[in-house]
Amino acid sequence: MQASWLSWGLENMMKQDKSWQVLLYQYSQRLLQFVLNSQLNTLPSPDNLRRWSANKDAFCGLCTQKHATLCHILAGCPWVLRISLPIGEDRYTWRHNNVLLAIARAVEERIIEANAKAKPKEIKQLAPLQSAFVRAGQALDSKKKVTKKHAPHLLQAANDWKCDFDLPEFRSPGSSYVFPHVVALTTLKIDGYIIFETARICIVLELTCPMEENLVKQHSFKQRKYEELASEAAQNGWRFEKLIVEVGARGFVPFYVRKALARLDIKAKALTNKLVLLAQKCSYVIWINRFNKEFQTWWL
């Protein structure tokens, strides 16, 4: 059980920045203890307390389910999933939105830089945007590797990009987030999009913060979820690209997330390290509030 984190991908775990400088200045002692114990599944969750014979009747502090697991507490408690808070944001959505805001700020900054450049004489042909998702244990095809030097950046195609995200910081009071109807009519809740109307190019960004055990399942689900939307956009004459990103609740970020961010010419390593820390901090807050039904959200 304590080695289950190996299934997330040993190579990717080794690439995480856990230098002494990071551990000393970005992690408090309690946060670091939580991160290590959550990855090794040695936190005093109800199922572990029962396993250790410390409390055979331990239950979830919110839904009262007996022998609840860490996955239940951090991402699957039905009480959290069905509750409707006055601000409309439960603690899982709060973690998701904190991570999404970091991505949105990076994308917004990059678009401002791209739009400040001289207008290209002609619209560059974009290479297909692929997630390059590889299951655990599956080897990468060396022939399909793209060197960093020649990797194309999507935002190089033009200098008239616009973006919007399903976050209150990106709109004026009273206005609501709406996916562009000119691309496709949809009721799907899309986290964000980047659009270039002249060339009819639309890139959607979708973030999920599941438990690491569910990364493959969530990625496949999101890919299928937007197939119909992509088809409708193509019928309307739009180039539609999907940027599917997952950040694990315990801070694990799959390798393909860096590749996807790099396609937008974002400094993927720095942003990825920030996403790791944000997810871990949010999950730690969720953990210490596992008995608190009056939890209030805020921006980290």
Structure description:
Mean pLDDT is 83; it is low at 142-150. It is globular and about 65 Å long. It has a four-stranded mixed sheet with strand order 1-2-3-4, sandwiched between helices. It is an alpha+beta fold and 300 residues long. 39% of the residues lie in helices and 8% in strands. Strand 2 (192-196) and strand 3 form a beta hairpin. The protein is built from eleven helices and four strands. Helix 7 runs antiparallel to helix 11. The protein has two domains: 4-88, no CATH class; 91-128 and 150-287, no CATH class.
Protein traits:
single chain; 300 residues; alpha+beta; 2 domains; four-stranded mixed beta sheet; 4 strands; 8% strand
Describe the structure concisely for a colleague.
A 4-stranded mixed sheet has the order 1-2-3-4, with helices on both faces. It has 2 domains: 4-88, no CATH class; 91-128 and 150-287, no CATH class.
List the helices and strands and how they pair.
Layout: H1 10-14, H2 20-25, H3 29-40, H4 46-51, H5 70-76, H6 78-82, H7 91-116, E1 162-165, E2 192-196, E3 201-208, H8 215-225, H9 227-235, E4 239-246, H10 255-262, H11 268-288
Parallel strand pairs: 3-4
Antiparallel strand pairs: 1-2, 2-3
Uncertain spans, ≥5 residues at pLDDT below 50?
142-150
Shape: globular
Helical fraction: 25-40%
How would a crystallographer describe the biggest sheet? 4 strands, mixed
Number of strands: 4
Biggest sheet, strands in spatial order? 1-2-3-4
Our Rg estimate from Cα atoms comes to: 21 Å
Content-based structural category = alpha+beta
Count helical runs. Answer: 11
Count of domains: 2
Please state the average pLDDT score.
83
> What is the straight-line distance between the termini?
31 Å
What is the N-to-C succession of helices and strands?
A: HHHHHHHEEEHHEHH
Strand content: 5-15%
